[in-house]
Amino acid sequence: IDAQFAAPRLRGLHALVTSGPTHEPIDPVRYIANRSSGAQGTAIAAALHRLGARVTFVTGPATTPPPPGPAVIRVETAAEMHAAVKAALPADIAVFAAAVADWRIANAASSKMKKGAGRPELSLTQNPDILADIAGMTEGRPSLVVGFAAETDDVLANARAKLARKGCDWIVANDVSPATGIMGGAENAVTLVTSDGAEDWPRASKEAVADRLAHRIAEALARDTA
Ligand code: CTP
Ligand code: CA
């Protein structure tokens, strides 16, 4: 192995990774959520840590246990994730792998809703976009901001639009249509979308995809500081 390749190449850098779903309460015993095991975000945090970065891992209630090494901050809702991300800054690298619920219940009940009280009307309000917020920072923005785009249709077009709309540097796009079996599985097939173009990566384990992404991140930052 090339010594340069084997050496930790993110030493001295701080990487922030969000992961897992968020849970948005309806009442104290019920919630709405996104499907997410947290496996891909966990693998990315582990891979960045192996390359020598100091990693802060902000995770919603995922089924995959958090990786050893990174500092783990557990949150439940999108609002909590947003606050935890801001509190963890500054960071050199930010990877937003979380499946954040786009809406929360505006009129969440503080005590359990009872069936006898009739059919509840849930009023939804949009959650803050954590990725767009951090990518749009004018001061103290991480050097590299990476978002994900989980799509079921028009993956590339949607990913390109997301890159532009959110102001991030890269989008890792994946096709999560049920037929791919990716959602909840051990493998991922992604397209890396940057301002330079789009690259299809072959389907591989989520760990292998994470390793490749971490190495790409190290390469990009080395080019920046060269
Ligand atoms: N994201 C975020 N905060 C949100 C919603 C999404 O940080 N409130 C991040 C995700 O972690 C991901 C990226 O934004 O990195 C894209 O998420 P996605 O759900 O694909 O995009 P949306 O902008 O929410 O659009 P839509 O769900 O309508 O496709
Ligand atoms: Ca969304």
Walk me through this protein's architecture.
- α2 crosses α6.
- The protein has an 8-stranded mixed beta sheet, sandwiched between helices. A two-stranded antiparallel sheet has the order 2-3.
- It is built from 6 helices and 14 strands.
- The protein starts with a helix and ends with a helix.
- It has helices at residues 3-6, 39-50, 78-88, 130-135, 155-166, 206-225; strands at 14-19, 23-27, 30-33, 54-59, 71-74, 93-96, 103-105, 124-126, 144-151, 170-175, 187-188, 190-194, 197-200, 204-205.
- With 226 residues, the protein is of the alpha/beta class.
- It binds cytidine-5'-triphosphate and calcium ion.
- Cytidine-5'-triphosphate (CTP) binds at residues 18, 78, 96, 98, 100, 102, 127-131, 147-150, 162.
Task: Name the poorly predicted regions.
Answer: none
Structural class: alpha/beta
Which molecules other than protein and nucleic acid are bound? cytidine-5'-triphosphate, calcium ion
- Give the rounded overall mean pLDDT: 93
Tally of contiguous helical segments? 6
The largest β sheet comes out as: 8 strands, mixed
Provide the β-strand percentage band. 25-35%
